[in-house]
Structure formats: C-alpha cells, structure tokens
Amino acid sequence: MMLLNSDFSQRAIVTPDDYQWIPSPQPGVERLMLDRIGREQARATSLVRYAPGSKFPAHSHPGGEEILVLDGIFTENGVDYPAGRYLRSPDGSSHQPSSRDGTTIFVKLRQMSADERQPVRINTQEAANWHGQPQRQVCPLFSGASETVQLQKLAPGERIFCAPLVGGAELILLQGEIRAPEGRYESGSWLRFPPGDMPALIATASGALFYLKTGHLSPTTLTGATL
Question: DSSP character for 39?
Fold first, then answer.
C-alpha cells in the first residue's frame, strides 16, 4: 500500500518545485500525487495530465470523484468541460474520461460521503456564480454535513484564514501568490492544514485565486482514510 501525506493531523505542502509526474496505467496520462492511501484503487488527491488524444476506459468510482479542470478541455462521456468547470460525481458513478486536445485536472478520489446522490456540474467562469465583496469573492461549489468547497478570489493583502480551522482545510492556488511566515507560495501550490491550525496566509500584490475545501479533515468527518 502506498502512503503519501497520509497523516491528516500534520500539515502537507507540495509546490511546483516538488512536482514529480508519474505515468499512469494509460498511455499519455500522467499523475502528480499529492496525498494517497492505497495502490491503484486508492483514496487519492492528485493532479492528472492528459496528452492530446489520451483517454481512460470506462470505469466506476467507489467513494466518488471530484474534479476541477485547470487547463485545456476535459471530456467525460462525450461532454466537453473546459478550464474552470467543477465536476462532482457521487459514490458508484461511472464515466469514460478523455481529452482531444490535452488537459490538466485536479482530482480527489474516494473522499465523498455515501449519502451524496446528486452529481454537480458548475461553470466557475460564469460571473453569476460568484458573490461577495471586492476584497473576497466566493464561488460556492458544494456544501454538506462534512465539508464545504468553493473557489475564492482575494484582493492583495487579504488573509485567507481569520480563525482556527475547526475541521482542517485544503487549498490549491490557481492564480496569483500567497505569502506565509515561512515563505511565498506560487500558483500550483497545494497546501493542507489539520484541524486546529491557523496558517497565516496572505494574498500578495497580485491577489490570489484558489480552490478551498474546509471541514473534511477532523476524525469525525474524514472519509476514505482507511481502505
């Protein structure tokens, strides 16, 4: 069994300088593992990169699958999803993913509650899906008993977290830069923080756009951590 960043009581950080792309079982598809518990059928958080014309055969996803398309066009069951689309498919769902022109996606596997039943498809590029003030704009993606998922845009100088994290948090920086006491994090950085932590993260002069999931890392809400 592979264990990578599998202690959810500790911080885990992967920056673009740490990237190590690994071939998947399918030609033309590579993975960058962020956290993982298990072998090929794993509870996993990854970046997945499809070369033009690459694909996976049809398969199902016990424990569900969550995808944010980062670049290019991701195709699922013949439907195209360009950059900025968010897909959430519940436990037992199946699909046949591919990319005609190439794509990179952020993927979370086997991390959904069995109570989830409805798929979610959101275009985060649509202005109507965003709300808030100029300093902090939010695009809600999902809210359930054990987690909240959203995109956030912060103005320069804004703090990401203003209170201790009750159920932990995880983010991937999509645009801009954030600073912390230990240094700066550029676009593509993935950061995970345990419950009770309060990281001092502040958007720099370029502002910051990021995916954020909160509430999912406490012992009572952690899903799929034992396989």
Answer: S
CB 199 within 8 A of CB 173: no
Note the pLDDT of residue 225.
65
CATH class of 19-122: mainly beta
Within the chain, what is the greatest distance between any pair of CA atoms? 46
**For the domain 125-214, what is the CATH code?**
2.60.120.10
Residue pair 210/203 in contact by the 8 Å Cβ criterion: no
Domain layout of the chain by residue ranges: 19-122, 125-214
38-86 pLDDT, tens per residue?
Answer: 877 789 999 999 999 999 998 888 889 999 999 999 999 999 999 999 9
pTM of the full predicted structure? 0.96
